[in-house]
Write a structure and sequence with these properties.
Helicase, Ruva Protein, domain 3, 14% strand, Rossmann fold, single chain, alpha/beta, 434 residues, five-stranded parallel sheet, nucleotide-binding, 18 helices, binds adenosine-5'-triphosphate
């Protein structure tokens, strides 16, 4: 799809030149000769960027920056000013413009400006959307006692600066938990730098972590920052640390001990104040026994270990997690009938939360916006287990399903069950572990 530019410029000749040039560059340019037309267009149409002249027949373009920013914080604004208008240009930046150019405009220069500004704008939007999504990922949906321990330890991890090792099978949410710890730590506003050690072996991983100077190896045609550099003041998340080769383990241990390192091919020592969170789905202690992982490194990274249990060991959480995942998939109101809940709780979920999320996404596609039915979950295998028999099991199943239907809201569940909030808490406590 073509990027749409709103060009606000009163000189017809300048407009003509810019429209022709940008049409050739693959943009769609919509023209406004004054602020009145611009305001009408901006209110009714969607644009990817605004090119704004300051001196317009019906007012000062600077005021229009405020109007744009009231409605859209992210859209790139490039201001075009006459020579000698530098103070105006500075003011335009202070009011929220992204860039300014001085007339006569060099079209090629403006095109480069525009491309860069649009790239940054789109990155900002993606980052904002990603952060919004990440904020909704709450790692602790649970009534299970094992997750209570996880929650307590995660809070301790967030309050401290010590290295944390998160263990658990694939798809249990180790990455989600690592981000939660970072966000809730005092480094939460700084970088969260993630590297997956299984995708990059040997020297490739070392290059990513340490960076390099020009000429350090054959293809090193320029200096490159390492992730340790970028994670300074923030958090470095090493996913699948069990897959880190021994040749990288030794220098990495040194970094942890000394908090400084050298880029590949460099002699200069660089300091980095990063906080380490690692994760693995492998048995690292067993790897130490087999000399595949250094014991001294393990001692350094596992000061605090948090284990995420697989979904099959906390099946009582499946209704709550499924509800929450539906909410994240923008389907908070969609009912999950008992038949489907028993299908979901009857399955062992080797891929854990990731698999549950995929299964729900597939079911939503198959349901085409309608109600979810059992046939949308075909392939989950085993039929639902026999209905609970003891009074305690019946009570547990009922409480859990009402809690799930109430989206984990204890007040709502208590009122639906016609018991007090305190009684419901007491019952949940008694039932934990069932
Ligand atoms: N609490 C949660 N909220 C929302 N989504 C979650 C949650 N936990 C896990 N997921 C989803 O499940 C998937 C797997 O999560 P994540 O990558 O954190 O797991 P992992 O244990 O790190 O997996 P792996 O070991 O394969 O790297 C992701 O799509 C993630 O969004």
């Amino acid at each position: 799809m073509k990027n749409r530019i709103l060009l606000i410029e009163d000189e017809a000749a300048t407009r003509f030149g810019l429209v022709r040039y940008f049409a050739r560059e693959g943009y769609e340019v919509v023209e406004a000769e004054d602020l009145t037309v611009a305001a009408r267009l901006f209110a009714s149409e969607r644009f990817d960027a605004v090119l704004l002249d300051i001196n317009l027949p019906d007012g000062n373009g600077l005021n229009f920056i405020d109007t744009i920013r009231e409605h859209d914080q992210a859209i790139p604004i490039i201001v075009i000013t006459g020579t000698g208008d530098i103070p105006v240009a500075v003011e335009s930046m202070q009011r929220g413009a992204d860039n300014f150019l001085v007339k006569p405009v060099d079209n090629a220069g403006l095109a480069i400006f525009l491309r860069k500004t649009l790239e940054i704008g789109s990155l900002k939007r993606r980052q904002a959307a990603h952060q919004r999504l990440e904020r909704h990922k709450e790692p602790f949906w649970s009534v299970h006692h094992a997750m209570q321990v996880v929650r307590e330890h995660a809070q301790i991890a967030a309050d401290s600066e010590s290295p944390v090792l998160i263990t658990g099978e694939t798809g249990t949410g180790k990455g989600v938990l690592a981000r939660w710890i970072h966000r809730n730590s005092r480094r939460g506003q700084d970088e969260f730098v993630e590297v997956n050690c299984s995708g990059l072996r040997g020297e490739l991983l070392a290059r990513e972590i340490f960076g390099n100077v020009r000429g350090a190896f054959t293809s090193a045609d320029q200096d490159r920052k390492g992730l340790l550099d970028i994670a300074d003041h923030g958090t470095l998340f090493l996913d699948e640390i069990g897959d880190m080769g021994l040749e990288v383990q030794a220098p990495f241990l040194k970094v942890l001990e000394e908090k400084q390192y050298r880029r590949l091919g460099d002699i200069k020592l660089i300091k980095s104040d990063f906080r380490l969170i690692s994760a693995t789905n492998r048995d690292i202690a067993g790897m130490v026994q087999n000399s595949q992982f250094r014991q001294d490194l393990l001692y350094r990274i596992n000061l605090l270990t948090i284990h995420l249990p697989p979904l099959r060991e906390r099946k009582s959480d499946i209704p709550i997690i499924a509800r929450a995942l539906l909410k994240n998939l923008n389907q908070p109101e969609l009912p999950l009938p008992d038949g489907i809940l028993s299908l979901l709780t009857g399955y062992d979920w080797p891929g854990n939360i990731r698999e549950l999320k995929n299964v729900l996404e597939r079911a939503l596609l198959l349901a085409r916006g309608g109600e979810l039915r059992a046939e949308h979950f075909a392939g989950l295998g085993t039929p639902p287990p026999p209905a609970p028999s003891s009074v305690r099991e019946v009570e547990a199943a009922h409480i859990l399903s009402v809690l799930a239907e109430s989206g984990g809201n204890v007040d709502l569940a208590a009122s639906r069950l016609s018991i007090s909030r305190a009684t419901l808490y007491r019952r949940i406590k008694q039932l934990r572990g069932t």
